[in-house]
Design a protein that fits this description.
- The chain is α+β, with helices and mostly antiparallel strands and 339 residues long.
- It folds into 3 domains: 145 residues, no CATH class; 47 residues, no CATH class; 106 residues, TolA/TonB C-terminal domain, CATH 3.30.2420.10.
- It contains 12 helices and 7 strands.
- It has a 5-stranded mixed sheet, with helices on both faces. A two-stranded antiparallel ribbon has the order 1-4.
- A hairpin with a 3-residue loop joins strand 6 and strand 7.
- The N terminus is likely disordered.
């Protein structure tokens, strides 16, 4: 009989613990987006959408990303950033858990259809394997909607318990302690129980408060916005890497003097592509700004070669250059077929 009475309580606490764990993860996901500018204003969101379009988007989702998301990238980036942060906050505090779960489920479905496409000829199981990063969270949100994840360890229950204890139990406890020599045994036990209820907070709530305090103390000031490029040459795919079919991403750490780049540190990427990227960076001219340091990425991609019926290949008129200056540059061209 005791086991059957305790089992629902254990299940409820386990579900609440899962809710708080997912909430903490979403707070981490949203914190750097909300308190920083790289994702929302620095081209970070657009970079991810372009990567999704290169490979990973379901065919029916591609027109949505190209026709709606990219033209309204800044607005959607802020919606994603604050949406993730609010979902995490609601789950951790146990406030509006069901609306937060609906928002989280919709976000995970959007991510699955935008980034987890394994390909048209993939095996059936690969559709599930490719989406594990997001489908697991989606199942968690479905669980929160079906169950009562906010039944324990949530703010309103703690506040009501605290108010009741503050007005009733606190006076009784200290009065009992002051008169401890004359209080009967059963009254002393009651006083001890009331004292325990007042001084004990739910462990997940205590951990949440500590995490929030540490985050606020250790939070670094927001990064300065990246400078605005007012003049630059259009980058091209260098000839030697094109013939050798060398691709990759080159990451730089750039420092400016207020109008031009004065220092370029290569963090990663093929050296032969880095040389071409450096030549293009030297042509950048910025609007006047406070000298700063930021990161930039040049991505060089080769598309499959195409040939016409006469056997003529490698038309260069289909070259593509995507500029999100000064943080992201993408150069795409057709691979060369040597006859």
């Amino acid at each position: 009989m005791m086991a059957s009475d305790q089992q629902p309580n254990r299940n409820t606490r386990a579900l609440a613990l899962l809710r708080i764990g997912v909430g903490v993860l979403f707070l981490i996901f949203g914190e750097y987006k909300v308190f920083g500018t790289q994702f929302t204003l620095g081209g970070g969101f657009q970079m991810w959408i372009n990567k999704f379009l290169e490979g990973g988007v379901y065919p029916f989702m591609e027109p949505v990303l190209r026709g709606f998301v990219l033209p309204h990238a800044t607005l959607v980036a802020f919606a994603v950033a604050y949406g993730e942060f609010c979902i995490g906050l609601g789950l951790v505090l146990g406030v509006l858990v069901r609306p937060a779960s609906v928002g989280g489920l919709l976000l995970m479905l959007a991510m699955i259809f935008s980034a987890d496409y394994p390909g048209a000829h993939a095996a059936f199981w690969q559709y599930f394997g490719a989406s594990l990063d997001h489908s697991v969270f989606a199942l968690c949100f479905v669980t929160f909607l079906m169950g009562r994840a906010d039944e324990v360890w949530f703010v309103r229950a703690w506040r009501s318990s605290a108010k009741k204890s503050a007005h009733v139990g606190f006076l009784r406890i200290h009065l009992s302690l002051w008169r401890s020599r004359t209080v009967k045994g059963d009254e002393m036990n009651t006083a001890r129980k009331e004292k325990y209820n007042i001084r004990t907070l739910p462990l997940p709530l205590l951990l949440t408060l500590v995490l929030a305090q540490n985050t606020s103390v250790a939070q670094q000031p927001p990064k300065e916005p990246v400078p605005v490029v007012i003049s630059a040459s259009v980058p091209v795919y260098p000839q030697v890497p094109l013939l050798a079919q060398i691709t990759g991403a080159v990451r730089f750490r750039l420092s400016t003097d207020g109008s031009h780049v004065t220092l370029m540190d290569i963090e990663s990427g093929p050296a032969i592509l880095a040389n071409a990227a450096e030549e293009n960076i030297r042509t950048w001219q910025f609007a006047q700004h406070k000298p700063t340091t930021f990161e930039a990425t040049f991505t060089y991609t080769l598309l499959p070669a195409t040939c016409d019926t006469a056997g003529h290949c490698n038309p260069r008129e289909n070259d593509e250059v995507l500029l999100h200056l000064p943080t992201d540059v993408q150069v795409r061209t057709r691979a060369v077929v040597l006859n």
